[in-house]
Amino acid sequence: xxxxxxxxxxxxxxxxxxxxxxxxxxxxxxxxxxxxxxxxxxxxxxxxxxxxxxxxxxxxxxxxxxxxxxxxxxxxxxxxxxxxxxxxxxxxxxxxxxxxxxxxxxxxxxxxxxxxxxxxxxxxxxxxxxxxxxxxxxxxxxxxxxxxxxxxxxxxxxxxxxxxxxxxxxxxxxxxxxxxxxxxxxxxxxxxxxxxxxxxxxxxxxxxxxxxxxxxxxxxxxxxxxxxxxxxxxxxxxxx
Length: 240
Hints:
Blueprint (H helix, E strand, L loop, with lengths): L7 E4 L5 H7 L8 E4 L20 E8 L10 H17 L4 E3 L3 E4 L2 E13 L2 E11 L26 H22 L2 H10 L6 E4 L2 E8 L5 E5 L2 E5 L5 E2 L4
Parallel strand pairs: 1-2
Antiparallel strand pairs: 2-3, 3-7, 4-5, 5-6, 6-7, 8-9, 8-12, 9-10, 10-11
């Protein structure tokens, strides 16, 4: 893989951009890997990621933070903020669903998969982005409640152009988190997040959204008091 002047490796097709980026972690000249199509793209919990050619952005950015892995929980949040800002500037303002899904009109616009590698004295994280740019000609599969940018944006740029915007935003937010800590990331996430009081569920746990903790944990107000959720997935029971 040979990166361009921006550090981006762009491929016509591959099995998984995350796999290729993980293999390139020790190559500082590689900043990201993108593709027009994935044959084995994956989301969280090993789910397959729908990656048809010409329909989406499939990009894996390599974060090499200057801060330690104990602050690594902020990386998924800053990635969500960066991607939300790019979509917003293109004309589609998404809602963020903790920790890092993007919703548009109540349907999934994008997902983010973060995979960390920790070694002696250093660590890195690969941030995989799947962003629906154009509605596939055959539509989304019945089990994929997806929506694409072209449902709201009249002129969606080519995937590679969007990739460069996303990389720039990711770099900027990583630099800001390095200099200023988690606080500005959390403030920005909340600007795109659901309204306070939105009812949410994680497994058997149900409560109302009360913001994020200083480490990015989800705060839920339940009948028994406040609970902070650090891992897992949540669903919104109602919208506000």
